[in-house]
Amino acid sequence: MSKGPGLFSDIGKKAKDLLTKDYTYDQKFTVSTYSDAGLGLSSTAVKKGDLSAGDISARYKYKNTTIDVKVDTESNISTTLTVSEVVPSTKTIATIKLPDYNSSKLEVQYFHEHATFSTAVALNQLPLVDLSCTIGTQTFAIGGEAGYETASGSFTKYNAGISVTKQDSSASVILADKGDTLKASYVHHLDHLKSVGVAEVTRRLSLNENTFTVGASYAVDPWTVVKTRLNSHGKLGALLQHELMQKSVLTISGEFDTKALDKSPRLGLALALKP
Known about the structure:
Layout: H1 13-20, E1 27-34, E2 39-48, E3 51-62, E4 65-72, E5 77-84, E6 90-98, E7 105-111, E8 115-122, E9 128-136, E10 140-149, E11 154-165, E12 169-176, E13 181-190, E14 195-204, E15 209-221, E16 224-231, E17 235-245, E18 248-257, E19 266-273
Parallel strand pairs: 1-19
Antiparallel strand pairs: 1-2, 2-3, 3-4, 4-5, 5-6, 6-7, 7-8, 8-9, 9-10, 10-11, 11-12, 12-13, 13-14, 14-15, 15-16, 16-17, 17-18, 18-19
């Protein structure tokens, strides 16, 4: 794909990943295996309190085509076919879900040096249509997205965003929830990318409510990463991620409320084993 501005969903993604990615408060165990023929199998078991769930997924990749199949414990089947470069600079993604076939959709992404477009259409009689567009470069991008429901003839969403990315920092501003939420974030890399700091401010206009969140990530060594975050509501979270062996990762995370120390902290453990 081209070295353009990226998709609209990429705006603010760095800050979001630093503050939320890999934080888990359940017990999760994943085992994966891959063959030289391009076939991969993965099994995941998750325990949430007294409830347990799991799924089995398979991925087959051949040249510019990828097929993903996922089956969960309730026998829901999701199949995703991704094909790149059917037309130059495009990616086509078809998702079929059973038995809830009304949730199936077809998405087409187009990447250009100075613009990116994405269209997703639900595969049913009265489809929901999502459109997004981003223009600019890898350094500066501005874009918007909208969702239209043909059944009611109304917009389900319309958001806008802008981002500025440099070698050691990035900043973004997003207007979401039909103009009700304003989110600004800033990410800065230190120590040759070993340390990363992030700050995010979210304002809900209808509630006149502000949330300020700061976070950091530090690479202790090539195999260990420590992350932490704290928001203005007193929620403090921390995460330790260690690569036990190549591609096999252990993640321990926790969160507690500094304004209610009598409450028990939330703890999570995730283990992913890969060959």
